[in-house]
Design brief:
4-stranded mixed sheet, alpha+beta
Length: 200
Amino acid sequence: MSVIDYENLFEVRKEKEEKKGQVTIVITPDLSIPSPDLMIRHRIKYDDILHSKITFNTISNCNDIKGSVTTFYKLDNEFKSIIFIQSEIIPYSTDLDVRYMNEAYKYTFLIHGLAHINDFENSINFNKHGKQIDVIKIEAYAATYILKYFTVKSYDMARALYARRLLKLNNSSDGCCLQIQREIMKKYPKKKLLQWSKQL
C-alpha cells in the first residue's frame, strides 16, 4: 500500500479552493470559542454571520468530530465561507507517525469543511435565508461525505482515523453527538465503521 502525502494533498486543495475567492482556510490552535470571536482573532471582515450560535451551542461538546469549524457569512451582500482547522488533533510530538496522523487529520477536516460548503451552496440541509437549520443532518452529511470521498480515493488511513473518531461518539453523554452518530450509521453501519477503523 502506497503512502499518501496528506500534507501535500492539503496544501494543493487549500490553494485550489482559496483561488476561487469564496472560501478562506485558516489553521488555528483553538476552536473552543464561537465563530465571531474566531473571525475577530484572525481579522476576517464580515457584515453578518449565519447560524453561528446554533451550530456552536449544539456541537461544542462533540469533540470527536470537531476538528474544524465552518462559518458562513455575508460581506458586501455576498455569501462567503471560512474553514477554521485545528492545527493539531494529537498533541505535538516529534514522532513521525504522530506528525503524519496530524497531517491526515488536517486534510480530513478540510474535506469536512468543504462538505459543509457543498451542502450550503446546494441548499441540501442549509437554508441560506432562514434561521432554522438541522445541525444533526448537517454534521451527518459532512461525515458521510468524507467517508464516501476517502473510499473513492482509497485514502484508507485517513478514513480509518475518522471512523475511529465517529465510533467514539458512542461514549458521549451529549444527546446531540449520539444523534449525529445514529444519522451517520443509517448510511454506514457500525460494522462498516469498525472494519474501516482497523485499517491503520
